[in-house]
Amino acid sequence: MGKLRAGVIGVGNLGQHHARIYAGLKNDVELVGVADADEARAREIAKKNGTEAFIDYRILLERIEAVSVAVPTRLHHAVGRACLERGVHMLMEKPITSTLAEADELLALAKEKKVILQVGHIERFNPVMRAILKMNLRPLFIEVQRLGPFSPRTADVGVVFDLMIHDIDIVLLLKGEMPVRIEAVGSPVFTENEDMAHARLEFADGCLVNLAASRITRGKTRKIFIYCADRYIAADYMRQNAVVFRLKEGRKGGDMMERISTARASTKKEEPLKLEILSFIQSVRSGSEPEVSGEKARAALAIATKVAEDVRARLERFRAAR
Length: 322
Prior knowledge:
Layout: E1 4-9, H1 15-24, E2 29-35, H2 39-48, E3 52-54, H3 57-61, E4 66-69, H4 76-85, E5 89-93, H5 100-113, E6 117-120, H6 127-133, E7 141-147, H7 159-175, E8 181-187, E9 196-202, E10 208-214, E11 221-227, E12 232-236, E13 241-247, H8 256-259, E14 260-264, H9 272-286, H10 294-320
Parallel strand pairs: 1-2, 1-4, 2-3, 4-5, 5-6, 7-10
Antiparallel strand pairs: 7-11, 8-9, 9-10, 11-12, 12-13, 13-14
């Protein structure tokens, strides 16, 4: 089997790393080229990775079998459709599209053309989440904090589609079902879209999930806390570590602190994006369903859409009451 001919469309802050990783997989992949509307940027990233620069991504599509798309969210549908129509396997950065109707069109097109459509919900490939999934948890309550400083590069969408959607996807992975109730609040601060948002998801079994997302804080936080009937897990996505707290078996009475055991989850630090791309390549090679299929990404988008709608509706009520 020859090398997979791959390319990258959009080589900004994230797309440049897709290009770097493809270029490093020299035994399995030929990075045919990178495309960007900014010609200088395309040439810069192409030079770094020993490949060709394209201004018109449609020309690149004629020469490749697989592509990573890392363009602004508003362009996901148009660029994604062009890729799929050419029969090119696609790894689309999250969210899959701006709307559910656009997502449905890409899903149908991928099925028609019989090509792989994977979406970049990268936390699924974080080693700490891999370790947590092996615990076979049944959460009663989940709390997530995804906070960070403002970045103009993502100002075209709100914080729900920019950041919170990562955690929505992880919650769906942990629960395996859609929530029965969604409530949210948020507000714009620096942009026209919401820059901070808090959401509460309720599931049929009584599990509650609190999600906090902000792009207006000074420090950067990426943490998840999972509470079960018999244990509590505190995990840090950035440090790729998790600690499990539970009562020691057979220990009753005495000092409560002495009865609590703590154990670190076994994780090996790896680059989640590289694991994501390797998974994409494997799906392309084997024809198997990708780990983060378009359908799974659509489910996350559906919840994110409802969260964003509730944020806007609640903010309108708040403003009208003044």
